[in-house]
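Form 7-S
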Amino acid sequence: MKNILLTLTLASSATALLGQTETHSQSAATVQPAAEPHLKNLRQLTFGGDNAEAYWSFDSKAITFQSNFKQWGVQCDQIFTSPVKKMGKDTTRKSALISTGFGRTTCSYFMPDNKHILYASTHEGDSATQKLTNTPGYDAEGTVSPDGKSIVFTSTRTGDLELWIMDIDGNNQRQITTGLGYDGGAFFSPDSKKLVFRASRPQTEEEITKYKDLLSRGLVEPTNMEIYTCNVDGSDLKQVTQLGKANWAPFYHPAGKKILFSSNHHSKRGYDFQLYMINEDGTGLERITNESMFNAFPMFSPDGKQLIFSSNRRNHGTRDTNLFLADWVD
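Output:
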């Protein structure tokens, strides 16, 4: 989290699609690494820069994501969208720019109509955007429930980083979590009745003092986080993982009983992040990815057939992080 004002903004994807232009040619490699049996027909979708937080449209046809790819004319993270079938071709197309191109943006998510996109931004908007929150500080990490009725997001409006829920139009905003520590990166279960999220819970006096000091400066140290679930009203709060280090980017399996997430708990170096799957009750931990040193932001398509995630595999020694798409095999 940056020490900047972030507000949740709504933009239309329709006008942005008019600005697509051709860019450089790239080889669209179909990648099938060994020892990743859940991932079939793995395909690379982007080819440069940092591309992350790719989330599906409700009809499973398009994605929205953030990128700082310089050849697309941006200097820091901006929000783009594209039909999945047009990505990863031999001649790649510039994805449609959704955000204004100003400030820094993050955490984009399709609205139920598949035409509008929710995202967080430091800009103050223009005639093509609509602000859904207006609280000084940090309102971000918004995602939409599968039934299209609610939005969950993280906010500092109470002085701590807590989960909040509001109606799809921004009304009826109410606090969900209350424990001291960072609560964020929340997603709904497939039936829209539960939330899964990452959280830190400082315990000792030293940990609490450090957390509050960082928070006062608009910062969070994401080195110790675990995965939690709760009902959408905040009840039945449960800690799913007790692995240590950083466990984050959780997302429910389509059946609603398992959770995918990214973790470096196995790593001696700290940076090696792999995707794991675990039962809701914390049993049955299974490693999903084995290639590269960074795999995160998994999201199943609404139809449950495909998984999209970010990875630095196949980046030829650069620091690029790209989007990858795979058919999911249970």
